[in-house]
Structures are given as C-alpha cells and as structure tokens.
Amino acid sequence: MNENKSNSKNPLHGLWALTNRDLKKWYKNPIILLLGIIQPIIWMSLLGKAMNLGDMFTSFSPQLPPTIPQEQIKQVMSELSKQAMTQIFGTADYFSYMAVGMMSFVVMFTAMFSGMSMVFDRRLGFLNKVLSTPVARGSILMAKIFSAVIRALVQASIVLGIAYLLGLSVSADFTVLNLLGVYAALFLISMGLSSIFILIAIRSTKQETQMAVVNLLNLPLMFASNALFPASLMPEWLQTITRINPVTYATDATRQLILYNIDTHQLAIDFLFLGAFAVIFSTIGIVLSWRYLTK
Amino acid sequence: MTNDAVVVEGLTKVFNKNLVAVDHVDFTVKEGEIFGFLGPNGAGKTTTINMLITVLRPTEGGAVVCNHDILKDASGVRDCIGVVPQEYTADEDLTGFENVILCADLYGIPRDESKKRAEELLQLVELTKFKDKQVATYSGGMRRRLELACGLINRPHVFFLDEPTLGLDVQTRAATWNYIRLLKKQFGMTIFMTTHYLEEADMLCDRVAIIDRGKIIAMGAPNDLKESLGGDIMTLSIQDGEADVSDLIKKVSKVKEVKKQDGTYRIKVVDGEETAPTIIDAVRAEGHRVTRLSLTKPTLDEVYLEYTGRSIREEEESKEGFAAQRMAMRKARGQRSMGMGH
C-alpha cells in the first residue's frame, strides 16, 4: 500500500514545490507586483528628482564682496558643488545616489512582508497540511525565504530598469560582472532579512502583529542607513547604527558596483558582512524551524 | 507491534498549562475500518487528530500510527498518512490540478507518477472537467473533493479526515459521503474521521468514539451503542386520558421502562416491532382504546444524550446558520492553542 520509502527520497523534496507555490501566487496576480514596486518608484522619481542637491550651490546669489566678479563666483560655486557631491555622495547626481538606495528599499520591503505569507499559511490551515507531510521542516522555511528572495530580486531589477530610464548615471566601467555582483549583494541581504521576518512569524497567527513589526522597523532601517543620505554626515550615534544595519552594506555594495569606481577593500567588507548576515540568520531559521514550526 | 492502524494510549494535550483539550484518551483503530470521533465543537477532536498527524506535540501519552511512533518516528508516520484538514487548504490561485501536483511534490513523488495519480484521483472525485480552473472558482463541495484527492496522492495507509463535511449543505454532504465510500472501496485504507454530525457518524463509521470535554465517554459500533441504550422508544396514547395503564404495560415482557407524560406513554422496549402488538393487546384487554402509537429506533443523538446529559442537536442548533462565526471561533481557539507570544 505505502509505496513511498523515505530513504529513497531527495531530502530537499518539496522545497521547490513550496517556493514555486508562493511565486505562482505572486506572478499570477500582477497587481501585487505592481503595488510592490510603485512605492520605490514614487520615492525615486519624486523625491530623488526633487532633491536636486547639486544645484544648491549654483542656484542662489551669495553675498560676497563686489570686487569678485559674478562670473567667477558662479564658476567656483559650480566647481564646489561638483566636488562636494562627488566627495560626499560619490556621484554628482543625487537622483542616481538614491535610485540605487531604492533597490535596497524594495528588497527590504519584500523581505519584511515575507513573514505575512507564513501567517496566512498558518491561519488557513495550509501549514498544518504541509507539516503532516514528510517535507523537511527546514524546507518549509527555506521555501518561504527563497520565494521572498526571488521576488525581491525581480522587483529590484524593475526598479533598476526604471531608474536607468529616468537617467541613472552608471559608472563608465560597468560590466555584466558588476550586475552579477549587484544581484549577489541583493540576494544576500534579502536572504538575511527575510529569514529574520519569517522567524518572527514562525508561530504567529496574527497578521496585525506582522504589520506592526513592519511599520515599526521600516523607517529606522531605511533612515539609519546610507540608502537616502550618506552616513558620513550623520551624528556619531546614528553612524553607529548604520554600521550594524545590513541595508548600509547592501546599498554601499550596489552603489560601488553601479555608480562608483570600485574600492575593492570596502566592497570585500560589504560582501563579508552581508554573507555572514545571510548565513547566520538563515541557519538560525532552519534550526528553529525544527523546534518551533510544530507546536 | 500490533496490526492495528492506530493505537492511542493516554494521549493528553494541555494548552497554556491549564486548558485540558484532550484528557488521557485511549483507543484503537483497527486495520481497514472507518473510525469516527464524534463530539460537539471544542470537544478535542481536532486537537487529537493534530497530534496523530504529528502537527501538534502531546503533553503526555502517545500513539502509534501504522506501526510508527508519533513522537519517535514522526517522519515514518507522515509517509504513511493522508490528511484532509477541516479548512479548505487548496491554494485558490492555483488550478485544481496544480494543487494535487503540489501535494504530490510534498511527498517527493516523481513527476511522471504524480501526474498519473493526479489524473486518476481527479477523475474519481469527478473534477477532471474543472482541473485546469482556478480553485477560487470552485464550490464548497468541489473543494472538499479536491482536498480528498490531495490527501490520497501518496496512497496513504491511514486517511485522516477532520470534519469532512463541515459547512456543506445537506445534499453536498451526502454526495461527499459517497465519495468517501468510493475512495475507501478503491484504495482500501483505514479512515479516521472526526465529525459533529450524528447522522454522518451513523452512516459512515464502523465504530465511533464519543468524545466530550476531552474525554472518550462511549465507544463502539453505532448499532451497539444504540442498542446499549436498552431498546427502541415507543410512544402510545389511549382514549381515556384519566386512566393510568403504566403498570399494565410494565407487565409485558421486554418492556424496560414506562413514563407517562401529558397523557402519552414513553416506553423503552426491546424488539419494538414484535412487542408493540403485545402491548396493544394488553391495554385492550383492560377495555382501553389505543388512539396513537409510534415506534422509533434509537439514534446516536439519544446515545449522546444518555452519556452527556445534553443533546448534541441542541448545541448545534444554537450555532447552525452561523458557519462563519463558528469558523471564526475555531480560528480564535487555534490562536489560543498555539500559545502565541505575540
């Protein structure tokens, strides 16, 4: 009767099936995809274009001794502006700076909401059904993480594409390799972040709690990072937070790869941090899923 | 090792240290039978099933399901069982076929095999025509059938059905019973089901256990349980309302008990069909005329009443028509039972 021999089976069976289920739910409802990327696009196209920091120096009339010719002032200010932007933001154009930050933003949001589908699966009884099958407990969790990661990467790609159309100034030595690096960085951060948020949801049946957690954390994670503004200009205490915020490292890595001339040392640190972040939290997730998925 | 499909010993679940949902329950499900767990909402039926399907850890006691211990060899249990949960768990965004294949993947069944089985099962539950439609478009009865198909994809040895007809109308419920019988005939597995519908337990189950407040209060074949009540119920009226013929009736052999209420006699009697004429004759012999007589076979409802002192119907009727509310209550109970910290 029972033809299934547990030892002849791939221990990862069901992992892709569960991942694919979440992905299917997502791509069969394009409206969800649209809603997911509409916010970063608004931020980028409205705030990013509005905050034209580069023009701050050139679009006002400084009160200086009249002995200096106006022409010269204009020239100096324009030069100052360029240097200030390049030194502080790494690029002369604030839009490009924050557009790349928006890729971290969209990844962060997708990861944050990944816990929600865990809550729904529990509420709707689907999780219990899966738990009664021989799927590895870790696979149940990893499927959630992977589907969040894949969704995050697709959305980040769309954001990148739109940013490019809106005038993102890509560095001269940008290659396909850089693009792969961008995906690697975003993969690691979304893996780490979604592990955390799925862990928060692992025993929860209340989507309200999840919403509250997301609301509580999204702005701090966003602002206490270099996603919108350089950390170097922040007060010391805030800089300390940005240094432990993984969003900072993901954003720095993607900026280096897309906008800047790569600082190999800094990029290595970014990837090390992101790698450790992803490995540590997904491991914690798998270990806890053995214990806590079943009540 | 026994040959019994499910052996449960002292199974207990306590939620939040004080809510005893299942209280030292012992029972055995024999190979190949349909065993019903009958009880009102909140009796501990779902909690019991969840422990047996390794989704919930018992506080105390244990069970062996198809020769695998639910605690020591949970994955062994998971391999040999099929589960149809109370909720509609099929994914609304996927098609019926995709849902069955998803279930197959969870058991690691190779794709060529799972496709074959999915087609076969969908045919059995008569969903072939709708297999490529999104489940969101399915009716309640269709969804139940889809759940049945999903639960059978791994050819389970023991099939667990938690309230298989909850929220279905009377016709759909009867149709679902037919599907369950059909599938049982086709695959010959042991079935463990919970229900709070007495007629469902009566129609489908070889044996039932009546559970109330976490404890099993009666167990046996539905007919044995009914017979244990001591016979049929006869009600009788005579023309002369003033006279009392109770003692007269009591003298008839096989009459167990006589009660007079508002001029009618409620008589508990063995072999009602044969005894009824004797009773009529005895009453007539004293010059009374019988104006009305009815004979009812005892139902599980009377069994339930006998053992709990309450009628399951009374409890149900107050809730009937509030299916949504009931589901909400189940959810609320689910939350509590999960011991949420947040």
What would your notes on this structure say?
- The complex is a heterodimer of chains A (295) and B (342).
- Chain A has 295 residues and is mainly alpha-helical.
- Chain A is built from eleven helices and no strands.
- Chain A has helices spanning 15-27, 30-50, 70-88, 94-123, 126-131, 137-165, 176-201, 207-223, 236-244, 246-258, 264-292.
- Chain B has two domains: 6-225, Rossmann fold (3-Layer(aba) Sandwich), CATH 3.40.50; 230-297, Alpha-Beta Plaits, CATH 3.30.70.100.
- Helix content of chain B is 39%, strand content 26%.
- Chain B has helices at residues 45-52, 74-80, 96-106, 111-124, 140-151, 170-187, 198-204, 222-227, 246-250, 272-285, 300-308, 312-317, 323-337, and strands at 6-15, 19-29, 34-38, 60-65, 68-69, 81-84, 158-162, 190-195, 207-212, 215-220, 232-238, 255-261, 264-269, 290-296.
- In chain B, the strands form three sheets. Chain B has a six-stranded mixed beta sheet with strand order 6-7-8-3-9-10, sandwiched between helices.
- In chain B, β7 (158-162), α6 (170-187) and β8 (190-195) form a beta-alpha-beta unit.
- In chain B, α3 crosses α4, α3 (96-106) packs parallel to α5 (140-151) and α4 (111-124) crosses α5.
- At the A-B interface, α1 and α5 of A face α2, α3 and α13 of B.
**Proportion in β-strands of chain A:** under 5%
- According to DSSP, the number of beta strands of chain B is 14
Could you estimate the helical fraction of the residues of chain B in percent?
25-40%
What percentage of residues of chain A falls in helices of 4 or more residues?
over 70%
Number of extended strands of chain A: 0
Based on CA atoms alone, the radius of gyration of chain A comes out at 23 Å
SS element count, helices of chain A: 11
Broad shape of chain A? elongated
Strand order of the largest sheet of chain B: 6-7-8-3-9-10
Query: What is the H level of CATH, i.e. the homologous superfamily of the largest domain in chain B?
Result: P-loop containing nucleotide triphosphate hydrolases
Which ranges of chain B are low-confidence, i.e. pLDDT below 50, for 5 or more consecutive residues?
332-342
Q: What is the assembly state of the chains in this entry?
A: heterodimer
Number of domains of chain B: 2
Query: What structural class results from the helix and strand content of chain A?
Result: mainly alpha
How many separate domains make up the residues of chain A? 1
Distance between the amino and carboxyl termini of chain B: 42 Å
Rg of chain B: 24 Å
CATH class of the largest domain in chain B reads Alpha Beta
